[in-house]
Amino acid sequence: MLLAAALALTSVLHPGQPHPAQVKTHHYVTGGWKITVGHDVFTDAIVCSVKTSRMHYRNETVILHIKSGIDTTHAFFKVDDDPARPVSDAFHEVELHGFFPRRGWVDDPVGGDVALPAAYLRDANRVAIRASEKSRPTMFKVSRFGDALDRAKSEGCSEASFKPAG
User: Is pTM beyond 0.85 here?
Assistant: First the structure.
């Protein structure tokens, strides 16, 4: 007991010693979507992410990763049983959310990513994306995305608190 008190006093008297975590992080899973909510106790800032191994959410947009090295500039996508549409149908809306296809699709058109407005996927079960006529569609299970987003927001996440994937 005396040793614990001495160690506690030492950490107060020596500011170079480790301090309690400045960011308290909580992890949740909803339908395969991993939700991370970090609260910086010093600045009171909240930083959040909602993602799976091949998808992540940011700026009202879901980024779907097909495969590195695949050019997705002229890809087509299908949400559930809706007709196939070119990803270019989404360009205007994702540009409004901060993505600029004309300067390089998402980060790099051959990076294998497709950006779709989150509203397209909120109540969907699956998305299929075909990068070209010569490739097979890549399937993404997006069911419960809306639930995951709602959970993140119920934990204090605002649109501004969602960070880029990393």
Answer: no
